[in-house]
């Protein structure tokens, strides 16, 4: 459930009409609902209520400082994958002991930043990384808490580009080598083993792959403890999917997920960490855009919007589906027709949807892409010299721009023409 509903024929973000925001900030823009973000975090906390746990929001899904502040103030930890994300989390007031650092290519500078600034744990993905972290920690006279990310060789049955737990994927160490790798870690004085980490992919719509991975994790926990390692935390990663297409069967709820985690891992008495990103932010955001032209092609009718693939790349990159709805609610039984919904960028890939049935639309009409709160604004670029679009946060009847649209001068001033040219 989210907080983008029609009221009196207008699509609202909580108690604010999206068309009022459009009139104030211009299109296109992203809009997030504070109540939805709050609700989604609570769902996970409730789902794991019976176990000691920390929800570490995977902030790569949406790392606007206002979003981080909101979630951080509600007690969320953060899963960061770069020094930039670490800085954002800290700037939003999240304490270091609630930040886990994931990613396969951490640099020594990033390690230093997190070790001096405070960190809950590093999720280490290879032995060379372990060696590097050991060196950095020793040079700072400190000890780095680590979990090793294991690759359980489970197929998440999701999109090719976001499956991460098969043996051919670049992530983690093969679970078959875990014993060796943990023994190696235990020999390095700059490291302290605190747990095990796993993350098998994103947009999973079935609990079975999670359960398969977590069963392997349970066995591994018992084995590593027997080998003398102090496994007190299990980081289960993120990946729970969201209903992009409302007509489709709904993915499992956080409560189902939580019950499964309790059943499979509860007896181990570990602190549980989870790293949801998409489920927290995805349906907490929409992208609002205006129809520029309706163009009659030979076989198709094109709806040309002022938003493009540079603003929301998921359809072009993953063939992803987003619901598209008009800001004015169509009358019951109103005529609809198939449109190819496209942006102005000079690539045929700049297509949001093909042959999508929508009520009749005209230039100047506004539409919203649903489920755009995760992997939307964060993946945007200025391709075609289109300025990054603003982000707006709504809470009840108030809204604020939480990232302003850059001016063209600001964009141009980022480039420098060398004196010698
Ligand atoms: C991307 C990622 C997540 C979040 O995945 P979602 O599908 O957004 O929940 C969590 N952990 C790691 C290590 C990731 O790379």
Task: Write a structural description.
The structure is a single chain. By secondary structure, the protein is α/β, with parallel strands linked by helices. The chain folds into two domains: 4-31 and 282-412, Lyase, Ornithine Decarboxylase, Chain A, domain 1 (Beta Barrel), CATH 2.40.37; 103-274, TIM Barrel, CATH 3.20.20.10. 28% of the residues lie in helices and 25% in strands. The strands form three sheets. Strands 4, 14, 15, 16, 17, 18, 19, 20 and 21 form a nine-stranded mixed beta sheet that branches. It has an eight-stranded parallel beta barrel with strand order 5-6-7-8-9-11-12-13, surrounded by five helices. Helix 9 (254-265) links the parallel strand 12 (233-235) and strand 13 (271-274). The chain is globular and about 70 Å long. The mean pLDDT is 96. Bound molecules: pyridoxal-5'-phosphate. Residues 58, 60-61, 79, 102, 199, 202-203, 237-239, 275-279 line the site of pyridoxal-5'-phosphate (PLP).
Layout of secondary structure:
Elements lengths: L5 E2 L2 E4 L2 E2 H8 L3 E5 H14 L5 E6 L6 H9 L3 E4 L2 H9 L7 E3 L6 H10 L3 E4 L2 H13 L4 E8 L21 E2 L3 H10 L3 E7 L10 H19 L6 E3 L18 H12 L5 E4 L3 H4 L3 E12 L4 E5 L8 H5 L5 E3 L9 E7 L8 E9 L6 E4 L21 E5 L2 E6 L4 H6 L8
Parallel strand pairs: 4-20, 5-6, 5-13, 6-7, 7-8, 8-9, 9-10, 9-11, 11-12, 12-13, 15-17
Antiparallel strand pairs: 1-2, 2-3, 4-14, 14-15, 14-19, 16-19, 17-18, 20-21
Helix pairs in contact: 2-9, 5-6, 8-9
The chain binds pyridoxal-5'-phosphate.
